[in-house]
Design brief:
The structure holds two protein chains of two kinds.
Chain A: H1 16-36, E1 46-51, H2 57-68, E2 72-76, H3 90-97, E3 103-108, H4 113-120, E4 125-130, H5 136-150, E5 157-161, H6 168-177, E6 183-187, H7 196-204, E7 208-212, H8 215-218, E8 224-227, H9 238-244, H10 252-255, E9 263-265, H11 286-305
Parallel strand pairs in A: 1-2, 1-3, 3-4, 5-6, 5-8, 6-7, 8-9
Chain B: E1 13-20, H1 24-30, E2 41-49, E3 53-61, H2 67-76, E4 81-86, E5 89-95, E6 101-103, E7 123-129, E8 132-136, E9 142-143, H3 145-151
Antiparallel strand pairs in B: 1-3, 1-4, 2-3, 4-5, 6-7, 7-8, 8-9
The chains are: A alpha/beta, B alpha+beta.
Chain lengths: 310, 152
């Protein structure tokens, strides 16, 4: 599969074969990294991280991934320290940055910004989140985490919990899971149900989808519970946010009827939707999930740069 | 009398037939024909039609529609047929078809879409024709017929 020069913008651009390929390369890199400590596939290559919006995990794990591949990193982590503040267009910023680097990772508050950046740039662009639209590398690392934990994705029953209306992570994860033979429980308050067009699309693609507000009723059936934060910043008005804030909390009480093998995931940051008492249980997979960000992003950087020889 | 002759024959111009009943005003707005210097328009509304039940017809004197303009009509009147008339004769006939991609006609209704903030031509992919559903090339949001009509 030739990935050199390819952009990673939306999970919608990926086939199942593409996804499986990235996961396989990530696994190989993780093994190599464990053996050798550091790699040098990307020696002499420069990654530019353009974060127009704050992030902890995504930016640091991309930077860590590039360093672990032997490359180096330039970039900024807030738009306020750049010429964007002087009114520079996104297109001009991208045309400038591509002169200094070999691959660009961008997070931007506007939907479609990464697609536009990819059209303007002659070097590969990887989307690290565009407004409420897509965050494809998160989806790939989520799939990688599930596959590592269970050895497979097919045959699993997966619950998505929390803000299914505004959460971009759950939208693209659900779309990617539709490639597999899974059952999905969509658990949310009425106000935050998954948009109908996505639910319809999942059903059309053959996924068994159950929508419910009842977390405790769904828990015994699940192999994976994917929890998301109810994001205040995505709500059009405060009143709607207050109505649903704190609707669910995953704690030991809630988990008492869960399968022994249930794994709880979360894209983080969390607020109060998973009680810290869950962290020490065998159910907690969310910090392992954070770790997966590095090999998956190493795979994407290495593939788009064309330095892995695959 | 044939239904499309209910209004006077035009010597030269464009006849847009099979517009859904009641949509003629929207059609002339989209085509920019409501301006005072836009030329003579002949309109028939709520005409019985075998194909549509009821339909509207707009005849535009002295103006030939380009393909890009026809695409604009396709969004509001997907069954429309366009006849170009010269010397009282139909010299060209097109069936309006919704293209796979729509560029530069429609604005994205998502205020946070990058296409509303940067110097970029709006682009949409047609997801379904019946009912009409488009997906913004940039923000990937889907828009339905009502939103399309509001943003034309």
């Amino acid at each position: 599969m030739d990935w050199k020069g390819r952009d990673v913008i939306s999970i919608r651009d990926f086939s199942k074969e593409d996804i499986e390929f990235v996961l396989k390369v990530a696994e190989r890199l993780e093994e190599e990294l464990n053996e050798k400590g550091s790699l040098d596939y990307a020696r002499g290559k420069i990654l530019a991280t353009l974060f127009f919006e704050p992030s902890t995990r995504t930016r640091l794990s991309f930077e860590s991934a590039m360093h672990r591949l032997g490359g180096s990193v330039i970039g900024f982590s807030s738009a306020s320290s750049t010429s964007v503040k002087k009114g520079e267009s996104l297109a001009d910023t991208i045309k400038t940055v591509e002169q200094y680097s070999d691959v660009i990772v961008i997070r931007h508050p506007m939907e479609g910004a990464a697609r536009l950046a990819a059209e303007v740039a002659g070097i590969p662009v990887i989307n690290a989140g565009d407004g409420s639209n897509q965050h494809p590398t998160q989806t790939l690392l989520d799939l990688y985490t599930i596959k590592k934990a269970f050895g497979k994705i097919d045959g699993l029953t997966i619950g998505l919990l929390g803000d299914l209306k505004y959460g971009r992570t759950v939208h693209s994860l659900a779309e990617a899971l539709a490639f597999y033979d899974v059952e999905l429980y969509l658990i949310s308050p009425e106000l935050l149900r998954m948009p109908k067009h996505i639910v319809d699309e999942l059903r059309e693609r053959g996924v068994k989808v159950y929508e419910t507000t009842d977390l405790e009723g769904a828990i015994p059936k699940l192999d994976v519970l994917y929890v998301t934060r109810i994001q205040r910043e995505r709500f059009p008005d405060e009143e709607e946010y207050l109505k649903v804030k704190g609707s669910y909390q995953v704690n030991l009480e809630v988990l008492k009827n869960a399968k022994e093998t249930l794994k709880v995931m979360h894209p983080l940051p969390r607020v109060d939707e998973i009680h810290p008492e869950v962290d020490k249980t065998k159910h907690a997979l969310y910090f392992r999930q954070v770790f997966s960000g590095v090999p998956v992003r190493m795979a994407l950087l290495g593939l788009t740069l064309g330095v892995l020889g695959v | 009398m044939p239904e499309n002759l209910k209004i006077e024959v035009i010597p030269e111009g464009t006849v847009i037939d099979h517009i859904p009943a009641g949509k003629w005003l929207k059609v002339i707005e989209i085509l920019g024909l409501t301006k005072p210097n836009g030329g003579t328009l002949l309109i028939a509304s709520n005409v019985p039609s075998k194909k549509l039940g009821r339909k509207d017809i707009v005849k535009v004197e002295g103006r030939y529609l380009s393909e890009e303009e026809v695409n604009k009509i396709a969004l509001i009147a997907p069954m429309a047929t366009v006849n170009i008339v010269k010397d009282y004769k139909i010299i060209e006939k097109f069936n309006v078809e919704i293209p796979d991609e729509i560029t530069g006609i429609l604005k994205c209704p998502n205020p946070n879409c990058v296409s509303n903030h940067e110097y970029v031509t709006p682009r949409f992919h047609v997801e379904s024709r019946e009912p009409l559903k488009l997906r913004c090339h940039y923000c990937e949001r889907t828009i339905n017929e009502d939103e399309i009509a509001q943003n034309l």
